[in-house]
Design brief:
- This protein has about 575 residues and is α+β, with helices and mostly antiparallel strands.
- It is built from 17 helices and 27 strands.
- Strand 6 and strand 7 form a beta hairpin.
- It is globular and about 70 Å long.
């Protein structure tokens, strides 16, 4: 059981105190923090004025368009960023707007992957941050609330996609009618393995296990179909489990599958998920890593198929930092940073041997991955080089991409031509990670020294103690919340009984325990305590001892299945 502490070290590494919180190598972090905030509001206000209620802003024509399903997506994606920037009043306003205006019962074909990470993830994060934002939460929060119900409704719309012979989901689902009869069965690996963070959170908050179950089944199906050398391909047929695209790597089409194995392990204290990733990591190092670059190889043979670096791969150093592999993470990060310096951004594809962009892949849609890695690594190392990347990102994006109505995708980094799109992840991820890089005192970086106590029906729950797990769209999930909404009361009863048993063991000279069952069928503990004056029987069931209140332990208690958890502590009444 002690090995579960390993899963927590990656979180606490992000909270280690160290020098360099202020200016490093002449970089004024307060100045750049304000610059990033200004970037956010220039983009956010432009969206509200010109594009809402459409999904995204078109910054060159100052209008909007629906892209992923007509959800006012940018508003959902930006919601938790508002709180991270300290704007509680706008957060509260947007919560009301979303409750009144977003409808998932529509005849729209939606990406299962994108709807999950942006909509479900964004709503879950905002739900868990609502109280911190001053929203008047309803009784039973965080186990209930309007944003949680919206997230659950959206996720239920995705469940028909998982009804396949393999348990791996289709890539697209109609929100009103389910999977279309002619839907292609070919789905990318990331589109199959990127659900455990959101779906497990939903299951823990609502008590409905179906979400976590389908997410786990999909993950295990990919694991089962890995090659003999331990690699997975890029696209697979979810009906036959046959690999359609056999290129193996860490980038586009695969990336967040690996990310969610690590983050799912952290969130759920799940050794199986971490073991899967560590096995993949061995194969990745053996077959795809060359001089701290990661290439694409044939999944069955390990031969190089594409000697390119993709901008989406820049999340990898951050993921390495989460498992404590800091030295390898920094070396790979510095490789990627040289590409940024060469172009003022990361091209979608970069030919490593030639040291230049790949034809028709020269663009930079303001992706966050390299900034994300810089944020994680800076929390772990305080290396000022990471702040320099943040500075360069702010300067480049403002110089190249800023237009009158927001920030435009860079169509070609060679000549700085722009494209008429501002993806919602710019506000959800890019700006957020930049701000967190320059804001060491943000509540997201909490080291556990501050927290909130929430009264629950059977005790008190600790929230907001830090260790937030970001989904792949940078929506932070408080892992403590997963332990606040236990629907299986037997688990909580067992912990209470064990605590009371421990108390009597300390107080009595000799104690024996046995199980009894009350009229409801629930097991309870009884104790026989021998004293010098004779033998007396003391019932350990609190429901039968209302007159004699048994003192509880003063130490914090945790759910039975995660007693080694630092986060998610549950305190009993009158602790």
């Amino acid at each position: 059981m002690l090995r579960s502490w390993y899963l927590l070290c990656c979180l606490w590494a992000l909270h280690l105190p160290g020098a360099g919180e202020g200016a490093a190598r002449g970089i004024d972090t307060a100045h750049y923090r304000e610059r990033v905030k200004s970037m956010f509001y220039h983009a956010y206000d432009s969206y509200l004025e010109n594009a809402f209620p459409y999904d995204e802003l078109r910054p060159l024509t100052c209008d909007g368009q629906d892209t992923w399903g007509s959800f006012s997506l940018t508003l959902i994606d930006a919601l938790d960023t508002l709180l991270i920037l300290g704007n509680v009043s706008e957060f509260q306003r947007v919560v009301n707007v979303l409750q009144e205006g977003v409808d998932f019962d529509i005849d729209v074909n939606a990406s299962v992957f994108e709807t999950n990470i942006r909509v479900v993830g964004g709503l879950l994060s905002a739900h868990l941050l609502s109280k911190k934002a001053g929203v008047e939460v309803e009784a039973g929060w965080p186990c209930s609330g309007p944003l949680l119900r919206m997230a659950e409704e959206a996720a239920r719309k995705l469940l028909p996609a998982f009804q396949t012979p393999t348990g791996m989901p289709y890539g697209t689902v109609n929100l009103l009618h389910g999977v279309n009869p002619g839907e292609t069965p070919v789905t990318c690996t990331a589109g199959i393995g990127t659900f455990i963070v959101e779906f497990a959170t939903l299951s823990h908050l609502t008590g409905d296990l179906v979400f976590e179950d389908v997410a786990r089944k999909a993950i295990k199906a990919l694991w089962k179909n890995r090659s003999d050398i331990g690699l997975v391909g890029n696209h697979i047929d979810v009906v036959t489990a046959k690999w359609v695209a056999q290129d193996a790597g860490i980038g586009a089409g695969v990336d967040s599958y690996f990310e969610y194995l690590v983050k799912g392990a952290i969130l759920l204290h799940d050794e199986e998920l971490m073991s899967m990733f560590l096995e993949y990591n061995k194969a990745i190092k053996n077959y795809t890593k060359f001089d701290d670059w990661y290439l694409w190889v044939q999944m069955y043979k390990g031969t190089v198929s594409m000697p390119v670096f993709q901008s989406l791969e820049a999340y990898w150093p951050g993921l390495q930092s989460l498992i404590g592999d800091i030295n390898n993470a920094m070396r790979t990060f510095l490789n990627y940073y040289t590409v940024w310096k060469q172009f003022g951004g990361l091209p979608e594809f970069y030919n490593i041997p030639q040291g230049y962009t790949v034809e028709k892949r020269e663009g930079y849609p303001l992706r966050p991955e390299l900034i994300e890695s810089a944020m994680y690594l800076y929390r772990a190392t305080r290396d000022p080089t990471l702040l320099e990347l943040g500075r360069d990102a702010v300067e480049s994006i403002e110089k190249i991409s800023k237009v009158e109505c927001g920030f435009a995708t860079i169509k070609d980094l060679r000549d700085h031509r722009l494209d008429n799109r501002m993806e919602s992840f710019f506000l959800a991820e890019t700006v957020k990670y930049l701000y967190l890089l320059f804001d060491p005192d943000n509540f997201i970086h909490n080291d556990g020294s501050a927290f909130d106590v929430v009264s629950m029906p059977y005790g008190e729950c600790i929230l907001g103690a830090g260790g937030y797990v970001f989904n792949t769209e940078a929506h932070p999930i408080d892992p403590a919340a997963l332990h606040c909404c236990r629907k299986q009361k037997e688990e909580q009863w067992e912990v209470e009984d064990l605590m009371r048993a421990f108390y009597f063991l300390k107080k009595s000279k000799k104690s024996t325990f046995k199980r009894t069952a009350d009229h409801s069928g629930r097991e309870s503990q009884t104790a026989s305590a021998d004293t010098s004056s004779g033998s007396s029987r003391v019932e350990m069931n609190p429901e039968k001892n209302t007159k004699r209140r048994i003192p509880l332990l003063s130490c914090p208690n945790q759910p039975f299945t995660s007693k080694l958890s630092v986060l998610g502590q549950v305190f009993l009444d009158n602790t």
